Amino acid sequence: MAHLLKGKAVSDKITEKNLERMEELREAGIVATLATIRVGDNPSDISYEKSATKRAHLTGVNVRNFECDADITQDRLLELIDEINHDDSINGVLIFRPLPPHLDDRTICDALAPEKDVDGITSGSLAGVFTRSGVGHPPCTAQACMEMLDFIDYDLTGKKVTVMGRSLVIGKPVAIMTLNKNATVTVLHSKTTKEDFIEAGHNADVIITAMGKDGAIDRKVVGKKQIILDVGISVDEEGRICGDVDFDEVESRAEVITPVPGGVGSVTTAVLMKHVLKAAKRQAQSKGLM
Asked: Which among 78, 143, 98, 90 has a CA at the least distance from the CA of 117?
């Protein structure tokens, strides 16, 4: 039976360190503040907003929630982002995505000041992930995967990593981040042939799946004694949150596996707070306050 890698232990460890960072900021008279921007009432956005706010309160981070109508114009949303960019009391910004189709995602993301981008959505932050320049922050969920591997002291050097999904939110950045840890990385996507998909799944030491397809990863796709991080989130026919992995089929074959829910999600919010605190410290240092 696989070792069940739950997110709570990992997020608790990150939060413990975050509390130390928060105390350092407090001693300098700084209140770290996160702004969230939500457009419309998407249930998944509301859920994430609640979990992020809860994690912020546990850490001592102040939160300001900006709720926008689903039909907000692009110009008005850009105005709001500009106002937040120039508000020195706000250190980090989380914009819930995907945005409604009438809004241009890339234009909105790149309007955010890079120094306040704590979820790796701007082109500058993504370039920082690819070039290892240290600019900005990586996407929180991709970083959460790395935190989970670090938690179990897993050395990626020379290991085969198969990433299932190629989005800018998880797939592409986590592929680069594991590559930067000296792994050999294969990225699978919707155009990958079924044969190649199965072969890459069987041959991997680590599988990171982020497709958002309920139960798409079954025992036919995986090998044995693998580390499987399930980042996919979807809702099944009975309204239950589930991941990409058919857990009942795959658990017995894996060495380490994350559950959904209860896996990567809580680590993601802890990473978000880590990024906010780092952004607050950088801002303070730039003003000579620390």
From this structure: 90
Q: Which residues of 194-220 are buried (b: 16+ CB within 10 A; e: fewer)?
A: eeebbebbeebbbbbbbbebbbbbeee
Q: Do 273 and 55 contact (CB within 8 A), yes or no?
A: yes
- Residue 24 is classified by DSSP as H
Give CATH for domain 29-114.
Answer: 3.40.50.10860
Return d(Cα 20, Cα 29) in angstroms, integer.
14
Check pLDDT > 80 for residue 236. Answer: no
Q: Among candidates 4, 63, 65, which has minimal Cα distance to 33?
A: 63
Residue extent(s) of CATH 3.40.50.720 domains in the chain: 140-265
CATH of domain 140-265: 3.40.50.720
CA distance 203 to 106: 35
* pLDDT for 11: 96
Q: Please check the confidence at residue 1 and state whether its pLDDT lies above 80.
A: no
pTM: 0.93
- Exposed / middle / buried, residue 124 (Cβ in 10 Å: 0-12, 13-18, 19+): middle
pLDDT score of 135 more than 80: no
Give the H or E element holding residue 184. Answer: strand 184-188
Cβ neighbours around 123 below 10 Å, total? 14
Question: Residue 148: what pLDDT?
Answer: 98
Residues of the chain with CATH 3.40.50.10860: 29-114
Angle subtended by helix axes 140-151 and 7-27, to nearest 10: 110
In the beta sheet, which residues pair with residue 36? 65, 94
Tokens 């509301």 -> residue: 46
